[in-house]
Amino acid sequence: MSGNGIEALPTTEMPQEVSSLLLPLADGQMLVPVDTLSEIIALQSPVSAFDAPDWYMGELHWRELRLPLVSFEVMRGNAMPTLRSNCRIAVLSSGSPDGDLPFFAVVLQGTPRLVRVTPEELAGREGECAMGELMHVALSGEAAVIPDLGTIEEACLAYRSAR
User: Fold this and answer.
1) Sign of CA dihedral 102, 124, 33, 63
2) Burial class (CB in 10 A: 0-12, 13-18, 19+), 43
3) In this structure, how many other beta carbons lie within 10 angstroms of the beta carbon of residue 51?
């Protein structure tokens, strides 16, 4: 697969507009469809995870589930962001509702912003995708990353099964 990931999109007719969210990170923004976000919750300290990768910050209790709390910045190879009072936690659907990990949580540096994505406003950007990234994009000139939710889910499950 080449760096832009365009070939991976299905050839079915694309919707004219997709309601999406820009999720603020310490090192940029993540772009996800609205239906990927399950809930925004207040920042809380996760239960520590033993011998976890740096990006696996621990686990949260949410709706009778134990969710991995992930630092997307660290997963991408950047430094652990400072957790400030404006930080929030986004509970995201992994895309496999019947799988072993239907949801995981990501630390946000602020409040998500609702955006309408149309094919005219979205452009691929050059750049090597790091772990957890599906594609680098520009939305009306704003840089963002589309996360690879399946890869994040697999990485969390791989850690959990190894302990």
Assistant:
1) positive
2) middle
3) 8
The answer to whether residue 156 is domain-embedded is yes
- Partnered with residue 146 across adjacent β-strands are 135
Structure confidence by residue, pLDDT tens digits, 20-66? 999 999 989 999 999 999 999 999 889 988 899 999 999 999 999 99
Residues 134 and 147 sit within 8 Å (Cβ to Cβ): yes
Q: How do strand 65-70 and strand 103-108 relate by DSSP bridges?
A: parallel
Joined tokens for residue 79: 């430094």
146-155, pLDDT tens digit by residue?
Answer: 999 999 999 9
Of 131, 148, 145, 127, whose CA–CA distance to 53 is shortest?
131
CA atoms of 95 and 102, how far apart (whole Å): 7
Is this prediction's pTM over 0.70?
yes
Domain of 117, CATH number, reads 2.40.50.180
Question: What range does the domain containing 110 cover?
Answer: 18-162
